[in-house]
Design a protein that fits this description.
The structure is a homodimer.
Chain A (H helix, E strand, L loop, with lengths): L2 E7 L3 E7 L8 E6 L7 H12 L6 E8 L2 E3 L4 E4 L7 E3 L1 H9 L3 E5 H12 L8 E6 L3 E7 L2 E2 L30 H5 L1 H13 L14 H9 L3 H25 L3 E5 L7 H14 L10 E4 L6 H12 L1
Parallel strand pairs in A: 1-4, 4-8, 9-12, 12-13
Antiparallel strand pairs in A: 1-2, 2-3, 5-6, 6-7, 9-10, 10-11
Helix pairs in contact in A: 3-9, 5-7, 6-7, 7-8
């Protein structure tokens, strides 16, 4: 029996899971810290793969979900800002030489979209937009049942689309991106800035509430906290309207920590979406749902990539 | 020999061309006015098809490029504002009943993209963004060698993406769309508004210069006319940067009347594009060119659709 090995590399953790061909429940799964013991992240990954390698050697492929800018076809991590040394890293070549099996590579948010399409909330949809909203905003696009990579694997960078020209500074150093107005970071910044001007709220002056704490306060009726979600949802809906005009998906899947705040973000997003679409045709058959695979989306997306190989 | 019949329907003209399988030079081509003689546009189209129908009846299919919102898979024109009576028109069913051959339907800008990809400036590119910039702005997207239709055939509506939130009114009735700041209409409006405030220019107060006249004046050094193109190009580049982030094409093809102004629009667009992309990876291998097929793009796109059928 051929096994599929899926890898999800993040700035904090590396996860590896071994799957059979017939189940999304892994035969074996382990996670380690991305850095430590004086070894490079790639050395640590190789070590974990050696440790978990099936004794009979029957492996179909290694599929890797990695963050940052990648060239999936070439198997190169162009730049992954959270992982030291991962600049122009030919990860597929390195692992292929070591393990002598095909190595597949995909951006983690793109593969999360593929995972939701194959195994999660997007099953049955051929045209899908997946967004992960947490400290940042990322995404993935499936059109006509194909994961969209673009010419160099850089497609789906939907967090860095301009939502408010000349607006708040984004984590990337440019201004006004969707990530700068609708992410968890943006929600926390909204409250922090209003706190400093003395706006009444349950939070104490000088405190730094997280998006999760702000969601809890909003549910308890804190006006400022609700405003922060309304602002994030308004810009999210306005920009998602443009995504619909460009891509016309039949389902929008929201993942990431902020999506767990549910109606707090989805209701203002939906209102703004309806206001900004140019024709009701764009939303009349549009499903909007929360992601189903949670933290496993990247790993299961890597599995989906492996099964399609 | 099977013939391919291509139809390009516009608000002013209906064009029909008969092609062999092996050439993009039509065996026969005719055009008529869309309206007239007390007949409906669909009656006029049927009449022209009957007139041009090959005597031996050997026809592979009829492929139609039509404006407005369509459902290509269902063969329905949902709404074509410039063609009286074309609301929820089952055009494919009507023509299939009449002529007993398969009838294919596509949005005119989407099919122009397909035409440029198959026969024009986009040959050899698998990931292509086509924009037509004239009185309005439309477009079409090819990814992984597939025309992107989206779930309901509404994808590629790139003229109605927000470029300047709460900005100038668009032809569609919403504010700040790309079409409202970067189309020929927007360029003419820019000059008209400045004329009214007494800005020095070669144009007389109260005149209504067209985008084409403004391009000529810009080339002759008229400062206001150059400003109008710089403004249009700036917003175009900023919004195209977002299209690159989402789609990551390897070629951007510019068609439509305004694209013929060449460097006047392309230079400020390119400068703005470089300023707004989040990584140089998006433009380092990006080709930017003018469309090659001119007025024939829709007709040849319909032919391409027919050949792929």
């Amino acid at each position: 029996m051929k096994r599929h090995i899926a890898v999800d590399v993040g700035g904090t953790q590396i996860r590896v899971a071994v799957f059979s061909e017939n189940s999304i429940d892994p035969l074996e799964q382990k996670k380690i810290m991305t850095q430590g013991e004086g070894k490079t992240p790639i050395e640590r990954l190789v070590g974990l793969l050696e440790e978990m390698w099936p004794a009979d050697g029957q492996v179909n492929s290694i599929a890797i979900a990695a963050p940052g800018y990648l060239e999936p076809k070439k198997g190169i991590v162009v730049s992954a800002p959270n992982i030291p040394g991962w600049i122009n890293l030919p990860i597929s070549e390195i692992l292929n030489k070591k393990f002598d099996v095909p190595v597949l590579l995909g951006n983690d948010a793109n593969l999360a979209a593929l995972g939701e399409w194959k195994f999660g909330a997007g099953r049955g949809h051929s045209n899908l937009l997946y967004m992960t909203i947490s400290t940042g905003i990322g995404g993935g696009i499936i059109l006509d049942d194909q994961l969209i990579n673009g010419a160099n694997g850089l497609a789906g960078e939907i967090g860095h689309v301009i939502s408010v020209p000349d607006g708040p500074m984004c984590n990337c150093g440019k201004r006004g991106h969707l990530e700068a107005v609708s992410s968890g970071t943006a929600i926390a910044r909204y409250v922090k800035e209003k706190l400093e001007t003395g706006t009444p709220t349950v939070f104490e002056a000088g405190s730094n509430p997280s998006a999760k704490e702000i969601a809890a306060a909003a549910r308890n009726g804190d006006k400022l906290s609700n405003e922060a979600f309304e602002s994030a949802g308004f810009f999210l809906g306005r920009t998602v309207a443009d995504f619909l005009h460009i891509l016309n998906p039949s389902i929008l899947i929201l993942g990431g920590g902020v999506s767990l705040s549910g109606d707090l973000i989805i209701n203002p997003m939906r209102a703004s979406l309806e206001k900004h679409i140019v024709s009701p045709e764009y939303t009349k058959n549009l499903t909007i749902v929360q992601a189903a695979l949670g933290d496993n989306a990247g790993l299961l997306g890597a599995l989906a990539l492996s099964l399609n190989y």
